[in-house]
Structures are given as structure tokens and as C-alpha cells.
Amino acid sequence: MATKGKTDGTIFPEWDFSKVWADVKMPEFNVNAMIAAQQKNIEAINLANKAAVEGWQAFAKKQAELWQSAVEDTGALAQDVTFAKKPAEKLAKQADFAKSAMKTGLANAREAQELAAKTANKTVDIVSKRLVEGMDEAVSYVETVQSKAAAAK
To answer: What's the pTM?
Structure first.
């Protein structure tokens, strides 16, 4: 491999980075503004995570309640079927239970989907709001640097 410039015995040339970057003009860099922006980003992520955790905790709590209810309903069905005298009566109780369980299951699935969507929407709203704020901050910063550069000319 051919190299242009003096080497120190390795394949990499000896570079004086101060000379390489000497002609590059960097606008002023506001470290405090960068730190503040990153703090806002971290706060937004923390809020989004908190909203997600709270939503999934509510979802898990609802699932536990539904499980408890299903266990109780199944126990009640078992007792009803046991005390029914005629086979037709037993079949009718089982059919009623099946219809009720189906309606309840669909309603619960709908509610779970709505809870998950609400949680997702809340977290997306938090992050997208911060994204827009960050873009506005960047535009404002560029305008400030341009104004200072124009005033210095």
C-alpha cells in the first residue's frame, strides 16, 4: 500500500491533525445549549418510559382481574351444571355460559386493545413533541449563529 507522507513504520502516515483541521471554520458551539437539549431528550424518554410502564401495569392488572373473574364464573357454571337435573337443563346452562363467555371475551379483548393503543399513543405523543421541540431549537440556534456571523462582517 502506497502512502503519501512520512510513516513511523506502520501503515498509517504521521498526521499533524492541527494542520489538517486548521482551515476548517467551525461556528461557535454552545455546549450549554447542547447539554440542555440532551437533558430535555432524556426527560422525554423517561416520561415515555414511565407512561409505557404505567400502561402495561394497568394492562397486567386488568388481565389479572379478568382471570379471577373467569375462574369464578367457571366455578359457578360447574355448580349450576351439577345441580341441574335434566340433560337439557345442563346443556342450556352450558350454552348460556358459552355465549356469555364469548361476549365477555370479545369485550375484554376490545378493552385490552384500547388500553394498549392509549399507552402507545401517549408514549408516541411525548417523543414526537420533544422531536418537534428539538427541531425548533436547532433552527433557532442556526438563525442565531447566522445573525452573529452577519453582524461580524
So the answer is: 0.63
Whether 94 contacts 77, CB under 8 Å:
yes
- DSSP one-letter string for the chain: ---SS-BSSSSSBP--HHHHTTT-------HHHHHHHHHHHHHHHHHHHHHHHHHHHHHHHHHHHHHHHHHHHHHHHHHHHHH--SHHHHHHHHHHHHHHHHHHHHHHHHHHHHHHHHHHHHHHHHHHHHHHHHHHHHHHHHHHHHHHHHHH-
The grid coordinates of residue 3 equal: 502512502
How far, in Å, CA of 146 to CA of 138, rounded? 12
Q: Which has the closest alpha carbon to 53: 126, 119, 124?
A: 119
Q: What is the pLDDT along the chain (153 residues), one digit of tens a residue?
A: 444 555 556 666 666 666 666 666 666 777 888 889 999 999 999 999 999 999 999 999 999 998 898 889 888 888 888 888 899 988 988 898 889 889 998 998 899 899 999 999 999 999 999 999 999 998 888 888 888 878 877
